[in-house]
Design brief:
single chain; alpha+beta; eight-stranded mixed β-sheet; 8 strands
């Protein structure tokens, strides 16, 4: 019996494998409330997809691209934010958390107060990780803390690695767009 592999069979098989198998997505975020600046970067298979800086201003968020030459303001009540919120709600049960690292550097200018606040924050984060570990038992969770005893500093950062299939991303996005449009139509009717 002669087995022949043709492109007719290989191309659909590769397409099905691409859709079905999970991809690894890494999200890195950092925020400094003293300067009201933050950075978010998204990596897929260790390749940077997007990188932008943001700042929070009352009822809107200002987003700049990596070069700083393009700025966009998004209101929290805008349709784009509603779609992203619904997308996250649809996707949160489908993702598999592989790694979650949280880094923080806090200093209040006083050694005692800095140590007390960092200890409290460390315990709160560990309790959150305990709840998260009960839902995602295979995840690696870690807190890296730094205390600046003599300086006033406050910086938070996170590194999250998840795996999700392309089909689940596409399905969740389409479903969130449909739900958001339905909700906006019902608001105008009432």
């Amino acid at each position: 019996m002669d087995l022949k592999f043709s492109l007719f069979y290989i191309i659909p098989m590769l397409f099905i494998l691409l859709i079905a198998f999970p991809i690894f997505v890494e999200l890195r975020a950092s925020f400094n409330p003293l300067y009201n600046r933050g950075v978010i970067a998204l990596f897929i298979f260790k390749k940077q997809i997007f990188y932008f800086q943001f700042s929070l201003n009352g009822k809107y968020i200002t987003i700049q691209n990596q070069n700083g030459n393009e700025t966009k303001k998004l209101e929290f009540s805008s349709p784009e934010v509603a779609v992203v919120e619904e997308f996250v709600n649809q996707l949160k049960d489908k993702i598999r958390l592989k790694r979650c690292f949280i880094f923080y550097n806090i200093g209040l200018g006083d050694a005692f107060n800095s140590a007390m606040v960092c200890g409290l924050l460390n315990q709160v984060l560990l309790q959150m990780f305990l709840v998260l570990k009960s839902h995602k038992p295979t995840a690696s969770l870690c807190v890296y803390d730094t205390v600046s005893y003599n300086k006033v500093e406050f910086e938070l950062a996170g590194d999250i690695l998840i795996s999700v299939s392309f089909f689940e991303i596409a399905y969740s996005y389409l479903y969130s767009v449909i739900l958001t449009k339905k909700k906006s139509k019902t608001q105008y009717i009432v």
